[in-house]
């Protein structure tokens, strides 16, 4: 199996839709999921590069595995559910510390999924990024500004200079795995951000990504642990 050039990890509480986002992006559809056990990974070719994307379990009982999955990650997607404020709070309380094992120049994205459930979204108009209001849905509990504030706190926690890292507005997304809203924008936005890191690493001869042949996972989209 070809060695991935970089590693991207999805973290977040159970039920926020991490697996569904990955299915939507990789398989172009929304399908029933079961709560993830341990973790799973996909391989994605992006231009000349191979990216491994790791889906992790949000359930508390698998929490101990999180920092292992984050080891040497170049990008972490912290995912919450826009209809559930607690899921945003958990990112800071429970998941951020797991990223201590990621690369120093790791890029972070904060993603609010299930936007389709909220009164901030109209599926009839889900075209070209439009998102007018309707009245008949759940109240949105987390605003994009809350996610942006979290992103800024993450940068502080990582002791990264806000003027050097990607702008918060560029790294906070709202998505719907169900309708596909902004899912390509999320993954491709993150891929484009990390490509310069691969180029830099290759140029300096420090290619330190995980060798999948050694870390013993399976074919694309297989479960492990
Ligand atoms: N309406 C709606 N439901 C969603 C969306 N994304 C996921 N779901 C549903 O939310 C539930 C949980 O989705 P998963 O993708 O399994 O969540 P997860 O974050 O992978 O959960 P764990 O594996 O337990 O950590 C499922 O019933 C999905 O169908 C979305 O964008 N909109
Ligand atoms: Mg899952």
Automatic annotation (TrEMBL):
<keyword id="KW-0460">Magnesium</keyword>
<keyword id="KW-0479">Metal-binding</keyword>
<dbReference type="GO" id="GO:0005794">
    <property type="term" value="C:Golgi apparatus"/>
</dbReference>
<comment type="similarity">
    <text>Belongs to the small GTPase superfamily. Rab family.</text>
</comment>
<dbReference type="GO" id="GO:0003925">
    <property type="term" value="F:G protein activity"/>
</dbReference>
<keyword id="KW-0378">Hydrolase</keyword>
<keyword id="KW-0472">Membrane</keyword>
<dbReference type="InterPro" id="IPR001806">
    <property type="entry name" value="Small_GTPase"/>
</dbReference>
<keyword id="KW-0449">Lipoprotein</keyword>
<dbReference type="GO" id="GO:0046872">
    <property type="term" value="F:metal ion binding"/>
</dbReference>
<dbReference type="InterPro" id="IPR005225">
    <property type="entry name" value="Small_GTP-bd"/>
</dbReference>
<dbReference type="InterPro" id="IPR041836">
    <property type="entry name" value="Rab20"/>
</dbReference>
<dbReference type="Pfam" id="PF00071">
    <property type="entry name" value="Ras"/>
</dbReference>
<keyword id="KW-0968">Cytoplasmic vesicle</keyword>
<dbReference type="GO" id="GO:0015031">
    <property type="term" value="P:protein transport"/>
</dbReference>
<dbReference type="GO" id="GO:0030670">
    <property type="term" value="C:phagocytic vesicle membrane"/>
</dbReference>
<keyword id="KW-0333">Golgi apparatus</keyword>
<keyword id="KW-0547">Nucleotide-binding</keyword>
<dbReference type="InterPro" id="IPR027417">
    <property type="entry name" value="P-loop_NTPase"/>
</dbReference>
<keyword id="KW-0653">Protein transport</keyword>
<keyword id="KW-0636">Prenylation</keyword>
<keyword id="KW-0342">GTP-binding</keyword>
<dbReference type="GO" id="GO:0005525">
    <property type="term" value="F:GTP binding"/>
</dbReference>
<protein>
    <recommendedName>
        <fullName>Ras-related protein Rab-20</fullName>
        <ecNumber>3.6.5.2</ecNumber>
    </recommendedName>
</protein>
<keyword id="KW-0813">Transport</keyword>
């Amino acid at each position: 199996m070809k060695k991935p050039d970089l590693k991207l990890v999805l973290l977040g509480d159970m039920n926020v839709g991490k697996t569904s986002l990955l299915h939507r992006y990789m398989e172009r559809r929304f399908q029933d999921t079961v709560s993830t056990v341990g973790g799973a990974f996909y391989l994605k070719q992006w231009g000349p590069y191979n990216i491994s994307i790791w889906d992790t379990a949000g359930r508390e009982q698998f929490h101990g595995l999180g920092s292992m999955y984050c080891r040497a990650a170049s990008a972490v997607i912290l995912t919450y559910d826009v209809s559930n404020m607690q899921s945003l709070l958990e990112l800071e309380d429970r998941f951020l510390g797991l990223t201590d094992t990621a690369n120093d120049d790791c890029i972070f994205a904060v993603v609010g999924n299930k936007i389709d459930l909220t009164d901030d979204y109209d599926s009839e108009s889900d075209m070209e990024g439009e998102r007018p209001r309707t009245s008949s849905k759940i109240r949105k509990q987390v605003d994009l500004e809350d996610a942006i504030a979290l992103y800024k706190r993450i940068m502080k926690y990582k002791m990264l200079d806000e003027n050097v890292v990607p702008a918060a507005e560029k790294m906070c997304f709202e998505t719907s795995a169900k309708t596909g809203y902004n899912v390509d924008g999320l993954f491709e936005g993150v891929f484009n951000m990390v490509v310069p890191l691969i180029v830099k690493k290759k140029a300096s001869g420090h290619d330190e990504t995980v060798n999948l042949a050694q870390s013993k996972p399976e074919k694309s989209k297989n479960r492990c642990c």
